[in-house]
Amino acid sequence: MKKTLLSAAIGAAVLGFASAASAATLDNVKAKGFVQCGVNTGLAGFAAPDSAGNWTGFDVDYCKAVAAAVFGDASKVKYTPTTAQSRFTALQSGEVDLLARNTTWTISRDTSLGLNFRYVNYYDGQGFMIPKSLNVKSALELSGAAVCVQSGTTTELNLADYFKSNNLQYNPVVFEKLEEVNAAYQAGRCDVYTTDQSGLYSLRLSLSNPDDHIILPEIISKEPLGPAVRQGDDQWFDIVTWAGYAMVQAEDFGITQKNLEEMKNSTNPDIRRFLGVEKDTKIGTDLGLTNEWAYNIIKNVGNYGEVFERNIGANTPLKIQRGLNALWSKGGLQYAPPVR
Amino acid sequence: MTDHAVIASTEARTLRSYAYDPKFRGIFYQVLTLLIVLVVGWWIFDNTTENLARSGTASGYGFLRGRAGFDIGQSLIAYTSDSTYGRAIVVGFLNTMLVAILGIFTATVVGFIIGLGRLSRNWLIAKLCTLYVEIFRNIPVLLIIFFWYKGVLDSLPQVRDSIALPFNIFLNNRGLAFPNPIWGEGAWLIPVAFLVGVVATIVVARWARQRQAATGKQFHTIWTGTGLIIGLPILAFLIMGAPLTFDSPIAGRFNMTGGARILPEFVALYVALSLYTASFIAEVIRAGIRGVAKGQSEAAFALGLQPSHTTRLVVVPQAMRIIIPPLTSQYLNLTKNSSLGVAIGFPELFSTTSTTLNQTGQAVEAISIMLTVYLAISIATSIFMNWFNAKMALVER
Description:
The complex is a heterodimer of chains A (340) and B (397). By secondary structure, chain A is an alpha/beta fold. Chain A has two domains: 2-122 and 225-328, Periplasmic binding protein-like II (D-Maltodextrin-Binding Protein, domain 2), CATH 3.40.190; 126-221, D-Maltodextrin-Binding Protein, domain 2. Chain A has 13 helices and 14 strands. Chain A has helices spanning 2-14, 25-32, 58-71, 87-92, 107-110, 154-165, 178-186, 197-206, 234-253, 260-263, 269-274, 293-300, 304-311, and strands at residues 35-40, 48-49, 55-56, 77-82, 98-99, 115-116, 122-124, 126-131, 145-150, 170-175, 192-196, 213-215, 223-225, 229-230. In chain A, the strands form five sheets. In chain A, strands 10-9-11-8-12 form a five-stranded mixed sheet, with helices on both faces. In chain A, helix 3 (58-71) crosses helix 9, helix 3 (58-71) runs antiparallel to helix 12 (293-300) and helix 9 crosses helix 12 (293-300). The longest helix of chain A has 20 residues, at 234-253. Chain A is globular, with a radius of gyration of 21 Å. With 397 residues, chain B is α+β, with helices and mostly antiparallel strands. Among the domains of chain B are: 3-55; 85-163 and 264-392, MetI-like (MetI-like fold, Orthogonal Bundle), CATH 1.10.3720. Chain B has twelve helices and eight strands. In chain B, strands 1-2-3-8 form a four-stranded antiparallel sheet. In chain B, a hairpin with a 4-residue loop joins strand 6 (250-251) and strand 7 (256-257). The longest helix of chain B has 34 residues, at 22-55. Chains A and B meet through helix 1, helix 4, helix 6, strand 10 and helix 7 of A and helix 2, helix 5, helix 11 and helix 12 of B.
């Protein structure tokens, strides 16, 4: 214990590594009474604080779902805004309990960074945004362009690979913070803005005249975005993963926030088990939670489709189609393993 | 006194009086301090390695040989996304050094002018210089960097409305594009001629000094030297048939293509750091000159020296002894402040290393590299300035 304290004090200050990373995260979370969630510093629709300082968004709802599963109360979350650069260190050091920050799942992050990914809450791909006035129809016409990109992202690497493999020249204009990339693009420091397509839709909204910019059709990469946790705590990893699957499964069952109470009386044994009303079920206790964990998620946050539509769907300013993120039964990729 | 009594008194001393022995006490505390430092150091090291092992994060410096995969906007050496992480860090280091060296040079010149200006008898000049110092010294350097960066970006035209300057130079918010000189065959003679000019000037200067010491006759080395250093390369250039062509920038679809360019990020960082540090250097200079006793210049005047000679031969050499040590810390500050370039996207050491950190996730290694490099730069600067200080120090006879 002495060792832990000393390293927490000195290690955190000097090296950014506290040994809080070790103990069972669920116990820590329960003891402190809230989930510390690493989110984006501000990406409309995904994670952004409103004028009252309340965080909302697609990724924020993921944090809330985890809090609902653990505490039955979606408000028991504290948010840590992280930059692309600081996010992994924040997670590795134990500063946050999970990272729900449109982070791409890659093999190197899964292995050498010491992180764990399993559930993908948004299937994305990298795209390009460019002012309409430049009259560009395809990314292949971009040779010689100055490209704004955020440093330390998979985007930065895909960009280099894409231009190299297509024999195109470009000048990278690289910033650490999203706000600075936005400002530089708006000031005309670069011609093209590249990041995940969902991000581009969101960023376009923040420009002074969104209609003057188009998003090119090319998608140059696979960007499976999902929550990440530290390696070495399987229980917490399971909770965070299954919180996501529960929302997908609920949509699959047709369980919504509205019909949740009726569904409790359903005769379908799958639904009864899922909502924790089956007799002597261990569906939640095996996770270290209560049996109503899935019920609590739907009650507080809603199913996957509701979360999607509320934050980024067709009726929001972002107007993103479900596309790859439709349920598997509707031609998408969202698929939850059986809850049994 | 018997033998027995002697032994007894020695024993009594060993037991009690060590605590009162200043020599022993000194050693004891030093050993204790060293032990504490070592134990704490070991503890940190041990905990870090243990935590790293437990978190499953990769460790070691092997990642430096891996393919970086990201591009860098400005590089002094050949660099592509196929280069290694190690090379990316070197690119950042060289960019840091570029800003630091140019910044130190400019800050010193500006600082000297402002510092002397504050001592001027001309009211307006003195007040303007005071205003400069008060403004730049009291604003955080990051803000000054942002001011220059946003100022440069917002006040300059878009790339399609570039300001065309003479000699195919173009200015826009992507930077300054200018013709890149391409030297042809025989161009080697020009630097050779330049070197010959420099050496000849040194020889002439030495001869002139000896002659003045011996006969009192003065010789204007400056004009001869200028003629040699500038004239000889021009002569060489003409003899070899002007072996020089220019690669001029041309407006492409998106950007200026061809030519060389200076990025706005670099200019903003360089100008901001220079002006900021110059305000401190100005005060150092002023303090140094004020620190020379008034009697010194009065004595020089009494001997009939002109004011310019008094400043150059009597006041400045003595002021230098006061100026150099604090000047060193200003140079170190400027070098370290260059890491703020990351905020405006200038690819200096901190920027490229933290990108590397993020792509590999090896925080401890990347940070240790940065620490080591900044420490090495600072120590090297200190050593040089200490040597310079020793050279300038009063030689007492």
